[in-house]
């Protein structure tokens, strides 16, 4: 009977072609780094990868074991990639380079490949320096001799060092830099244990929105591009190229969903990541602080080259990295092709996600995004668009007067175009035009050059509120 049983099992195995194979796909994400959302949380929670994984040909008898592991920064994710506990990872340019050079040091025949971009800014927007909410510091130039925390080895660390060098300071003597994760920094800022904190997306906005800190410096001030993207172990990519393409197809669908309905997905991302929807929308909404972009813009590749140089100068690595071999577009090009997307057209397109429809106050499309404003009212599923900061703040005041709760008001920095939380911005009125600025220094300069009147958000509300009361 035993022999018959074995023969039956063997017969079934022969009939099916071969026994079922299990393939692990280990993916490292950074959920709170929300510009990685299209590669992490959205793909995971909406089960988009499962939608695209192949089940024919060589994968006919495959069972997929999809393992997700969330990290708060890139360095620990790199450790698990190196230990072969993960196959794919999402991270910024600096930790990506550190991970690649760690593989070179290990010299075990495996390396990492940078296979797609997720989000970035050719101007460096998104990385930020914040100070405690009650601090008297208004500009980066006032931080000499101060204690600044930062997650070491992150893209925020790189921005901080560049900002220090731009001031002509010695990072080892003129400031005290301490290693601190975003989670710890939030408490330290509240307790005034640090003078400033430098970080990556979205903590400059998150701490500002929650009233923990004020943003005094944005990475766009440096003009140095920054990018977050996708890395994969070379052994996994070589053995399972179709699975790499399937994952990238899932990220492209996630990108489309974020573009089509950012409000709804930002609400969901809050449930999945803990990042407030209003902060998420500042990045993933139209004209966001960073642009989701799956193509390898030359500026993004240059950001990676710059990271290599800077990390060697800082002696964080002694390895040279061949960026031309590290960055490859063969997988994302194939994924885009299978999704019906034109990679080369997108590669040439630098435009952010545009504002949808027309402004409520004019009934026309917004002409200059730097002068636009938006409000998000509690209970409404869509963010309202206005042609000017004044129109947006005015609408918020009227909504409040009508008993509604305004979740957030957005304006844009007059010079950089970066989206700002209106209550944390500075304003200058020149004639009939109200301009918003991230920093007081920028507002001061604009007021002086254009003979304008500088105003705080409270001052703008009082001035406009008087008009609202009079009109009502």
Short description:
The protein has 472 residues and is an alpha+beta fold. The protein is 42% helix and 21% strand.
Helix residue percentage: 40-55%
Nearest-angstrom radius of gyration? 25 Å
Within CATH, the superfamily of the largest domain carries the name Periplasmic binding protein-like II
Note the main sheet. 6 strands, mixed
CATH topology of the largest domain: D-Maltodextrin-Binding Protein, domain 2
The amount of beta strand, in percent, is 15-25%
- pLDDT averaged residue by residue: 92
How many beta-strand elements? 18
Q: Largest sheet, order of strands side by side?
A: 2-1-3-10-4-11
| Weakly predicted, low-confidence segments | 1-16, 468-472
Number of helices: 19
Tell me, what's the shape?
globular
Q: In words, what does this structure look like?
A:
The strands form 4 sheets. This protein has a 6-stranded mixed sheet with strand order 2-1-3-10-4-11. The N and C termini lie far apart (93 Å). With 472 residues, the protein is α+β, with helices and mostly antiparallel strands. The chain has 19 helices and 18 strands. It folds into 3 domains: 2-119 and 226-348, 3-Layer(aba) Sandwich (D-Maltodextrin-Binding Protein, domain 2), CATH 3.40.190.10; 128-221, D-Maltodextrin-Binding Protein, domain 2, CATH 3.40.190.10; 369-471, Beta-Lactamase, CATH 3.30.450.410. The radius of gyration is 25 Å and the shape is globular.
